[in-house]
Structure prediction request, 233 residues.
Amino acid sequence: DAGVIQSPRHEVTEMGQEVTLRCKPISGHDYLFWYRQTMMRGLELLIYFNNNVPIDDSGMPEDRFSAKMPNASFSTLKIQPSEPRDSAVYFCASSLYGLRRGRHNEQFFGPGTRLTVL
Amino acid sequence: QKEVEQDPGPLSVPEGAIVSLNCTYSNSAFQYFMWYRQYSRKGPELLMYTYSSGNKEDGRFTAQVDKSSKYISLFIRDSQPSDSATYLCAMTPGSKKTSGSRLTFGEGTQLTVNP
Prediction:
């Protein structure tokens, strides 16, 4: 398997523009997570899905952020309008519920999207 | 107060040194404890995994969990320059299908091992 795939890898945009980040989880995984990582705040969970249904979106900073998972193999995180304080690395991760190889609910991370909002 | 506290470092050691990385936590419901390693400009990857209290060893790496003190540690023996990375502790309450899949991460400790 190719692992978790994210696109784009880098995004530079201007304040006020809409940004869409994309994620393809590992095939067969039933959980998908969106994280944001900054130097100041570390790795923060924004939202996660189970079987394409959002379970907890309490980490989404504000209404400018939205996430969807229309099917088991694709998810998007959208920021509209974007602001400079949204600049961060956004990670998508997926996992399979249960114990596998002695590891419970191991999360597999994608390479991240580095977002810069000018 | 954060649920998980981790000293961000940075930590710089000479090659061959023993490295100790630590996290404290406040939620007594946490039962599964993990250490993720993140190389520069990469996503985190699972390094060590421990259930409840005790020690777990894997090569040069040892993970310890002391639930009575709400304290976990990762030891790296004979550290190598290739160990230079950010190490994040992570934990989760248990095996319930929803809560057990959500991880709470520490801030991460940046480690540099100098040749």
Q: What stands out?
A: Chain A touches chain B through 26 residues (CB under 8 Å). Chain A has no helices and 13 strands. The CA atoms of residues 33 and 48 of chain A lie 4 Å apart. The first strand of chain A starts at residue 5 and ends at 7.
